[in-house]
Design a protein that fits this description.
Blueprint lengths: L2 H11 L1 H8 L11 E7 L2 E6 L2 E2 L1 H5 L4 H4 L3 E7 L4 E6 H17 L7 E5 L4 H13 L2 E4 L6 H11 L3 E5 L1 E4 L2 E4 L1 H10 L6 E5 L13 E3 H7 L10 E2 L5 E4 L9 E4 L2 H13 L8 E4 L6 H13 L3 E6 L9 H9 L3 E4 L1 H8 L16 E4 L6 H11 L3 E3 L11 E2 L16 E2 L4 E5 L13 E6 L9 E2 L3 H9 L7 E10 L5 E6 L3 E4 L2 E4 H9 L4 E11 L3 E10 L8 H19 L7 E5 L12 H8 L13 H13 L1
Parallel strand pairs: 4-17, 6-7, 6-8, 8-11, 11-12, 16-17, 16-18, 18-19, 19-20, 31-32
Antiparallel strand pairs: 1-2, 3-13, 4-5, 9-10, 14-15, 15-25, 21-22, 23-24, 24-26, 26-27, 28-29, 30-31
Helix pairs in contact: 1-2, 5-6, 5-9, 7-8, 10-11, 13-14, 16-17, 18-19
The structure holds adenosine-5'-triphosphate and magnesium ion.
GO molecular function, one term: propionate-CoA ligase activity
Pfam families: ACAS_N, AMP-binding, AMP-binding_C
Organism: Pandoraea terrae
């Protein structure tokens, strides 16, 4: 048995012994008395009776040995600012923020909603909440007021921390008007709003409610706020899923299990050493930001890079310039970002000294083969696809290179990560699938440490949504299709609600997209099923071209459409061939960069697109509409 295979086997067969060992990676104020309590499935409690604190483990614990080491490197290409904080400086700032929140009456178990741009104060606020035992709920900055109001009403925060503005592509996005409107729309009004004034946009203050963080901070410069020791299962935060498939779910995370899972992942998956520098190019509003910008790198005694900006401004070399300047060792981002870079000059990949960089991690969306190949060859570094969800907080599938560097396969995020008892099941019968048989990716309970403990405020929804969809079995459903090959590698074939049924043949959107993306002219593509009187459904594709003028004339467009159809024909067969291929310059996505296929489908079928509260850019929907109308 390979060393990873035995490591994995032990994590399932001797679950408690395995995790008790991993639990030594963090400090416990009171040791746990029981590794796992699972007498009320599917609710799992990890490290029962243990008391710990995320902020202590991420910050205080490192002060004796790394006070002068970098902890936070903030780079904003939006405002042309950079700031570096050592662990000592980070600790001082977190204490000031914690004291400020405490002065507003924030206590253990209360919620603090964080609606912030990517600035250091956002990270301070998260850690300050952890310090106080308060539950943070970070809402992606720049979300419209309706999104915000829905989350305010669900989380019922005592205090909201916000700022005057964010900035995108060099344009100031004022937050305060959105925030005020969000609070006006919400039923659960916060007692206070604490505001960071970046000097980007004018801000009106509401008398008696709004307070300036600068004022509070100045009153607490020397503050030392003790860590509130939480029982391991007490919530650390609530984070809403991206809303790609429907109404976002409030994912509740525990404290001890999360700390242990992240600390273990840094060793076994991210191959991190204390003193390394991680650059997770994501947003604190998403789970990757929570886990791999904020908590995990700091738990591991690393420096973390927090980046405000896009991957291509001032130019497509900016990320690699940051890697060179700060000697970044691990980069983590989403395939979407790599597809954006792929449209830029490839010379950017070789212009900088990337000798410090060891690994590039990608997650959040399927990593298609051409993109994987382009970035792997361009950087000359291993690219590690990993598959997970907001719900799990850390990878479900991946290659645990810290345990053993087993080879990866293009298009596969790898194998089940230790701790996850991954199953592929037949959606109709609930039976286990064999190799090369497509099924729903599910997880046998208990979920490992760090995964969601419940839906915030709604245990029944947790059980019903996640655990009651596989016939006859209590299994956690990922709502993704997958397949496992003979060597045990998994491939994700798309979401269970993205199935196209052509004359009785069930096709995954993702399979057709993969095929189309292999055409050299195509940068990105979305495939959806559209109602068809004859066949039930047919596949329709929307493609973004690498060179937008490649389909400028009607003749070129027709030729390219034919080419694309031929590729699918050849690779998947005629049933999968898209009935139409439309060319657009961008695809509708969520703010987290995920394709909104159901919106495209609605347009194609002449329906309302419905509630698209997480849509990135309405112009993309217009393009789809125009394309369909143009025929
Ligand atoms: P919602 O659940 O609200 O519809 P969402 O599923 O988009 O939103 P996330 O939790 O951010 O919210 O995304 C997780 C999903 O992203 C996974 O279930 C899967 O569909 C997709 N995904 C993540 N990583 C990968 C990957 N490496 N390969 C393929 N798909 C991935
Ligand atoms: Mg989901």
């Amino acid at each position: 048995m390979s060393s990873y295979a035995s490591f994995y086997a032990r994590s399932i067969a001797s679950r408690e012994a395995f995790w008790a060992e991993q639990a030594r990676l963090i400090d416990w104020e009171t040791p746990f008395s029981k590794v796992l309590e699972y007498d009320n499935p599917p609710f799992a409690k990890w490290f029962v009776g243990g008391r710990t604190n995320l902020c202590h483990n991420a910050v205080d614990r490192h002060l004796p040995s790394r006070a002068t080491q970098n902890a936070l490197i903030w780079v904003s290409t939006e405002t042309d600012q950079e700031r570096v904080y050592t662990y000592a400086e980070l600790s001082a700032e977190v204490n000031r923020m914690a004291a400020s929140l405490a002065s507003l009456g924030v206590k253990r178990g209360e919620r603090v909603l964080i609606y912030m741009p990517m600035i250091p104060e956002a990270l301070f606020a998260m850690l300050a909440c952890a310090r106080l035992g308060a539950i943070h709920s970070v809402v992606f900055g720049g979300f419209a007021s309706v999104n915000l109001a829905a989350r305010i009403d669900d989380a019922r925060p005592k205090v909201i921390v916000s700022a005057d503005a964010g900035s995108r592509n060099g344009k100031v996005v004022p937050y305060k008007p959105l925030l005020d409107e969000g609070i006006a729309l919400a039923k659960a009004k916060p007692a206070n709003v604490m505001l960071v004034d970046r000097g980007l946009a004018p801000m009106a203050r509401v008398e008696g409610r709004d307070v300036d963080y600068a004022v509070l901070r100045a009153q607490h410069m020397e503050a030392e706020v003790p860590c509130e020791w939480l029982e391991s299962s007490e919530p650390s935060y609530v984070l809403y899923t991206s809303g790609t498939t429907g109404k976002p779910k409030g994912v509740q995370r525990d404290t001890g299990g999360y700390a242990v899972a992240l600390a273990a992942s840094m060793q076994h998956i991210f191959c991190a050493q204390p003193g390394d520098t991680m650059f997770a190019a994501s947003d604190i509003g998403w789970v990757v930001g929570h886990s791999y910008i904020v908590y995990a790198p700091l738990l591991a005694g690393m420096a973390t890079v927090m980046y405000e900006g896009t991957p291509i401004r001032p130019d497509g070399g900016i990320w690699w310039r940051i890697v060179e300047k700060y000697r970044v060792t691990q980069v983590f981002t989403a395939p979407t970002a790599i597809r954006v870079l792929k449209k830029q000059d490839p010379a950017y990949l070789t212009q900088y000294d990337l000798s410090s960089l060891r690994l590039l991690f990608l997650a959040g969306e399927p990593l298609d083969e051409p993109t994987a190949r382009w970035i792997t060859e361009g950087l000359g570094k291993p690219v590690v696809d990993n598959y997970w969800q907001t719900e799990t907080g850390w990878p479900i599938l991946g290659i645990a290179r810290g345990v053993e560097v087993v080879p990866s396969k293009l298009g596969s995020p790898g194998m089940p990560v230790y701790g996850y008892d991954v199953k592929l099941v037949n959606e109709a019968t609930g039976e286990d699938c064999g190799p090369n048989e497509k099924g729903v990716l599910a997880i046998e309970g208990p979920l490992p440490p760090g995964c969601m403990s419940t839906v915030w405020g709604d245990d029944a929804r947790f059980v019903k949504t996640y655990w009651e969809t596989v016939p006859g079995r209590l299994l956690y459903s990922s709502f993704d299709w997958g397949v496992r090959d003979d060597d045990g590698y998994y491939f994700i074939l798309g979401r269970t609600d993205d199935v196209i049924n052509v004359a009785g043949h069930r096709l995954g959107s993702r399979e057709i997209e993969e095929s189309i993306a292999s055409h050299p002219a195509v940068a990105e593509v979305a495939v959806i099923g559209v109602q068809d009187a004859l066949k039930g459904q047919v596949a329709v594709a929307f493609a973004v071209l690498r060179q937008s003028d490649a389909a400028a004339t009607p003749e070129a467009r027709l030729a390219l459409e034919g080419d694309v159809m031929k590729i699918v024909d050849r690779q998947l067969g005629a049933v999968a061939r898209p009935a139409r291929v439309f060319f657009v310059s961008m695809l509708p996505k969520t703010r987290s960069g995920k394709l909104l296929r159901r919106a495209i489908q609605a347009i194609c079928e002449g329906r309302e697109t419905g509630d698209l509260i997480t849509l990135e850019d309405p112009a993309a929907l217009e393009q789809v509409r125009d394309a369909v109308r143009g025929g």
